[in-house]
Amino acid sequence: MILYLTYNDPPSGVYWSQVTDAVAHMGRLGDQRVRLLAFVSGRGFFATRRAIHQHAPSAWVIPMVPTMQRWRWNIILLALICVWSRPSGIMARGVFATWLGQRMRQWGLTRKVCFDARGAYAAEWEEYRLIDDDHIIGQFRPLEHAAVHDSDIRLAVSDALVQHWSDRYGWSGNEVVVIPCTLGSDHPIGTAEHGTERSTGIVLVYSGSTAGWQSFALLERTLTPLLEERPEVRVLFLSRTDPNNAGLQARFPGRVEVRWAPANEVAGILNGCDLGLLLREDSITNRVASPTKFAEYLAAGLPVLISPHLGDFSHTVRQHDLGWVIGADGSIPVLEPTDPAKAARMRAYAHQNLTKRAFDPAYRRILKVLA
Hints:
There is one protein chain. By secondary structure, this protein is of the alpha/beta class. It folds into two domains: 2-182 and 356-370, Rossmann fold; 202-353, Glycogen Phosphorylase B (Rossmann fold), CATH 3.40.50. Helix content is 44%, strand content 16%. It has 15 helices and 13 strands. The strands form two sheets. The chain has a seven-stranded parallel beta sheet, sandwiched between helices.
């Protein structure tokens, strides 16, 4: 058996797409059983366990030792589970889970460890201070260094992330696979007939929360001249109302709409728009990132308006003509409504390149190492 280990990852759409879907997909590819082991917060534990079991019925969901400062204490819980289950390998999501997995290998309780890296962990905590605690933030560089150097194989979400490991930590191995954030199993690939009827003009859509979002100033600087100079442009925020999007809505009444929708309705709404917005400020975190929204926009037939240094995706947009990349000076090319032929090409690209099935050789390589 192979364990897929997560630590303190709350259930969300990202978790279903990147964790439970990936576990199920790998379980179908090899002879080894792949089981999710999730250490979760004790707060709301039973609700969290129910939510995870809805997506992964066989998952082991364990309350973690309280407070993040004591995260290393979870090594005892993990050791007991490994003594009982004897996994051949552990695929660990993030630097905390990888450290725990590497201790199991050191103690002879598993043979191999895969570091499943979703981004540049130390850079993200240093740049955005996800918790305002210098002691915790200071742990990330040595933890990430060990995760990169001491794992048996690594999964990176972008080639840019692999280059970051080389630049910051001096890593130069070849035991790595690159799998970007792909579509969830329940996310439909749109069709010309599916979804909302397209409106007149050009509808730009941003899907996701903007509350407390560090890049909203960039989004506002980009959208304001478009809305001022081109009356046919409208913007839809698929999110809850917050001070950021409400302020833009007040400046452009009737041109900016904020609408929350259940997850199962989002794909159909996207299909009625013209262009997906994927704008991030220039930081190390964003230069190595792989936003799930990229695949979701393309699956709905939407070209993407993207920042110039967003993971591998900015280059992908240029290379495959999947939308527009904002200029280094913030300039925007002339935008056009998305015609049916272009929408079909976006959907085809998502289907061929941004599903988990498209990365079966990479997943099989991981499974071979961990078996």
